[in-house]
Design a protein that fits this description.
Elements: H1 6-17, H2 31-41, E1 46-53, E2 56-64, E3 80-81, H3 87-99, H4 121-126, H5 156-161, H6 181-194, H7 198-210, H8 219-222, E4 232-235, E5 238-241, H9 245-248, H10 255-258, E6 261-262, H11 264-275, H12 289-296, E7 300-301, E8 319-321, E9 326-330, E10 333-342, E11 345-352, E12 357-363, H13 368-383, H14 390-408, H15 426-429, E13 431-435, E14 439-446, E15 449-454, E16 457-468, E17 471-476, E18 485-491, E19 497-504, E20 517-520
Antiparallel strand pairs: 1-2, 1-12, 3-6, 4-5, 7-8, 8-9, 9-10, 10-11, 11-12, 13-14, 13-20, 14-15, 15-16, 16-17, 17-18, 18-19, 19-20
Helix pairs in contact: 2-13, 3-6, 3-7, 13-14
GO molecular function, one term: hydrolase activity
Organism: Danxiaibacter flavus
Protein name: Serine hydrolase
Length: about 525
């Protein structure tokens, strides 16, 4: 960044550093230099950091740039998608309705949504409002996500209605399996009970009360704001801008699970309210202290795995899911928080109730090692822990992951068109194929060849290139989806197409078509 005068440089410096000294609380020495090193090590263009302590903002500041290749800096007002950190807002909204006497945590969901169904009638009758939030309903991990990421044209109610067709992967209330779709059901409960849409309820009952005036509750609003970070993804050995983020990440139907965008200034206010038992920075009582205990109490324990020795101090002794929050320990302290990820953004909220402090890191590149390197460095300072080289540890993990991914990549050579031809004429593959949950998939012959389209998810449009046998390669027109797949057609005895099955090629892809089977609608 260039400045026309020393005066301008001084003014900018004062504006940036004034955020540090709002109340005189100290920070880890040379924190700016440390964060700059994190950005460089993990190739993260920009980051937003908030630290609160004893009800005050210690730090709310941006680092790096909003968009790779451009000079505009991230500041404390720059919006980032907070993704699944939105879930804590959904849980808090339900808690407010509990305080209002309009619902009860342990009431069946069908008391408020009479049309709601699970695939198991017993679970339908017994699934409670609390169960919606803790990922142990019995459906598989991430079940239904293709209805939400990338966005489909189904309404929120239509998406929740499809839960009835999701098979049970586990026994009821026995197994932690993270899902997003039941948070949409929670959003529908909020709307049904309050007669206000989730987005408006969260804004008026939570954001406005706290003073989070720059935070948006509709994903579609984010791109319209004046100070917004771009999304970035790592592709092979480089990082690039995710140009179609607003079209591919999530739609407004998914807002209760991950649609909020916020910044360092507003998230600091959110942490202060949570840490002060529902009391805002302006001493407005948003919710009761008993509600804090309810929101933070573990409902579903999560199995603990041995972590990499490269980051051994972070080994947890307990870990579990509460209502919109996770709870675990770091060293001798209990942590309450959550993470968030959408294509091109990752974030983490960490609060330490016993120290009355919290830290949030929002980033515009999918590097969890970057935000954890900052978080643990700050926690070590406030907890008076022995220093540890978090950057080196997470760098080793990142390098190992990249190397493993490269080794798993299988080069695919498509046959020459003159010798590689499918067993059937292209016209025979044309048709509409249906999945009970995700709807229709069409295959049509066009001048460029066969084209595959998910009818209800416009981002899932791919050109089919013949591979071998009855298998094609689906090359999605938006390469940033990283969803290229094998597409295999199964035949009936008469040679007609019976069904279509997809299988993801890229081992790093967030997509997982492997359980989808589309059957021909032809009779």
């Amino acid at each position: 960044m260039k400045y026309k005068s020393i005066f301008q440089l001084v003014i900018v410096t004062l504006l940036c550093t004034s955020v540090f000294a709002q109340n005189g609380d100290d920070l880890p020495p040379k924190l700016d230099e440390y964060i700059t090193k994190v950005l460089q090590t993990f190739n993260v263009p920009g980051m937003s950091v908030s630290i609160v302590k004893d009800g005050k903002v210690v730090l709310a500041k941006g680092f790096g740039v909003k968009k790779l290749g451009e000079a505009a800096p991230v500041d404390e007002h720059t919006l980032f998608s907070i993704a699944s950190n939105s879930k804590a807002f959904t849980a808090t909204a339900l808690a407010l309705l509990v305080e209002d006497g309009k619902l009860k945590w342990d009431d069946p969901v069908i008391n408020y949504l009479p049309w709601f169904r699970m695939s198991d009638p017993y679970i339908t009758m017994h699934l409670t409002v609390r169960d919606l939030l803790v990922h142990h309903s019995g459906i598989g991990a991430y079940a239904g996500d293709y209805l939400i990421f990338p966005p489909s044209n189904y309404t929120r109610k239509e998406i929740v209605g499809k839960v009835a067709r999701l098979p049970m992967a586990h026994d009821f209330r026995t197994t932690y399996a993270y899902d997003n779709i039941l948070y949409l059901a929670a959003g529908e409960v909020i709307s049904a009970v309050s007669n206000v849409e989730w987005e408006d309820f969260v804004k008026t009952r939570i954001l406005d009360k706290i003073g989070m005036n720059e935070t948006t509750t509709r994903f579609s609003q984010m791109k319209l704001q004046p100070n917004v970070s771009s999304a970035h993804i790592r592709y092979k050995d480089s990082v690039r801008v995710l140009e179609h983020y607003s079209e591919q990440a999530i739609g407004d139907a998914g807002d209760p699970a991950g649609g909020i965008a916020s910044n360092a200034t507003d998230i600091a206010k959110w942490m202060i309210t949570q840490l002060d038992s529902g009391k805002t920075q302006q001493k407005v009582q948003l919710f009761k202290p008993t509600t804090t205990k309810e929101l933070w109490k573990i409902v579903r324990p999560i199995p603990i795995e041995k972590i990499s020795p490269d980051i051994s101090p972070a080994q947890m002794d307990f870990w579990g899911y509460a209502l919109g929050f996770r709870s675990y320990n770091y060293q001798r302290y209990k942590i309450v928080g959550h993470g968030g990820k959408l294509d091109g953004f990752v974030s983490q909220v960490v609060m330490v109730p016993d120290l009355k402090m919290g830290i949030t890191v929002l980033t515009n590149q999918e590097s969890t090692g970057a935000y954890w390197s900052v978080i643990y460095h700050v926690l070590d300072y406030y907890m008076h822990n022995k220093p540890f080289d978090w950057i080196a540890g997470y760098k080793k993990i990142m390098d190992s992951s990249i190397a493993k991914s490269k080794s798993e990549q299988v080069p695919i050579t498509l046959p020459d068109e003159s010798i590689g031809k499918p067993p059937l004429p292209y016209e025979k593959y044309e048709g509409v194929y249906r999945d009970a949950v995700y709807g229709d998939l069409s295959v049509t012959k066009e001048p460029t060849g066969l084209v595959l389209r998910f009818t209800h998810t416009p981002q899932f449009t791919a050109d089919l290139k013949y591979f071998q046998h009855d298998t094609f390669i689906a090359k999605f027109r938006n390469p940033d989806l990283r969803s290229d797949s094998y597409v295999t057609f199964a035949l009936n005895p008469d040679g007609s197409i019976d069904q279509v099955k997809l299988k993801i090629i890229d081992p790093d892809s967030d997509s997982n078509f492997n359980d989808l089977l589309f059957r021909s609608t032809k009779k």
